[in-house]
């Protein structure tokens, strides 16, 4: 799916645009729930394998709901908690970027930064 050069470039983009901006965790997964890469701010105890599997299931369930109401897909999902929130964004037909961030960072900022990361990942994949 990805060669080492592409993975290194994706890691750099995630770190510079998201982790360095205060995001707590980022997981880039395929639709089967396999982690392609993951990053955190150094304070995480997240079980990435379990989270990736659950996130893929969540995304698949929402995708099925979209089709039931006549939408081709919902390419973006968001869950807000008391302390943290989770933003899901479809990157390619087969991959999802999951961003976890504290309440001190606005959803708008995360959406802007994720959009830039998604664009850059797609450029890497098409090169």
Q: What layout of secondary structure does this protein have?
A:
Elements: H1 4-17, E1 25-30, E2 35-40, H2 48-68, E3 76-80, E4 84-92, E5 95-102, H3 107-126
Helix pairs in contact: 1-3
Descriptive account of the structure:
- This is Roadblock/LC7 domain-containing protein.
- GO terms for molecular function: guanyl-nucleotide exchange factor activity; molecular adaptor activity.
- It holds the Pfam family Robl_LC7.
- Residues 10-101 form the Roadblock/LAMTOR2 domain.
- InterPro entries: LAMTOR2-like, Roadblock/LAMTOR2_dom.
- With 127 residues, the chain is an alpha+beta fold.
- It has one domain: Dynein light chain 2a, cytoplasmic (Beta-Lactamase, 2-Layer Sandwich), CATH 3.30.450.
- It is 43% helix and 27% strand.
- It has three helices and five strands.
- It has a five-stranded antiparallel β-sheet with strand order 2-1-5-4-3, with helices on both faces.
- Helix 1 runs antiparallel to helix 3 (107-126).
- The mean pLDDT is 94.
Task: Write a brief caption for the model.
This is Roadblock/LC7 domain-containing protein. With 127 residues, the chain is α+β, with helices and mostly antiparallel strands.
């Amino acid at each position: 799916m990805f060669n080492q050069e592409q993975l290194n470039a994706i890691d750099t983009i995630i770190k510079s645009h998201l982790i360095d901006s205060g995001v707590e965790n980022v997981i880039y997964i395929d639709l089967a729930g396999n982690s392609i890469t993951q990053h955190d701010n150094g304070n995480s105890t997240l079980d990435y394998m379990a989270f990736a599997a659950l996130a893929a299931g969540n995304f698949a369930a929402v995708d099925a709901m979209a089709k039931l109401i006549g939408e081709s897909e919902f390419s973006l999902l968001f869950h807000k908690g008391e302390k943290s929130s989770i933003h899901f964004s479809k990157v390619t037909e087969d991959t999802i970027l999951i961003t976890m961030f504290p309440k001190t960072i606005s959803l708008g900022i995360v959406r802007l930064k994720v959009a830039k990361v998604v664009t850059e990942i797609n450029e890497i994949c098409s090169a």
